Amino acid sequence: TLGIRGPKMVLQILLPSALPAYIDALKVNVIIAFMMLVFAEAVGSNYGMGHWINLYTHYGDYAKVFAGIFEMAAVVLVVNVVVERVQRHAIKWKAD
Q: Is residue 68 packed enough to be buried (19+ CB in 10 Å), middle (13-18) or exposed (0-12)?
């Protein structure tokens, strides 16, 4: 309608309009991916935070279990803050 076609339309109209949704989906998917990683470590690995939490659950050392859960939450929080800052820097036109 405005005479823009091809790559110029993608780079100037479509990508900027879709970028906020992509970054919002990235935040959710990073959290889900980290939870799946920890679950996989708990089930089938001898290393990692998931194994560590699972091991101390069997020993009944719940202080270490909660420490592991809080550590996982801290990692997810840091990743989420980084993605939020990238979002604020890259997408100045998005309303909060």
A: buried
User: pTM of the predicted model, to two decimals?
Assistant: 0.72
Distance CA(96)–CA(89), nearest Å, equals: 13
- What is d(CA 47, CA 44) in angstroms, rounded to the nearest whole number? 9
3 state DSSP class of 60: coil
User: What does the pLDDT look like over 22-81, one tens digit per residue?
Assistant: 888 988 898 899 889 888 988 888 888 889 889 999 999 999 999 999 998 999 899 989
Q: How many CA atoms lie within 13 A of 31 on its CB side?
A: 14
Count how many Cα atoms sit within 13 Å of the Cα of residue 80 in the half-sphere of its side chain: 13
Torsion on CA atoms 49, 54, 60, 63, rounded to nearest 10: 20
Sign of CA dihedral 12, 17, 20, 23: negative
Please give the C-alpha separations between residue 25 and each of 7, 45, 76, 92, in angstroms, as whole numbers. Answer: 24, 28, 15, 18
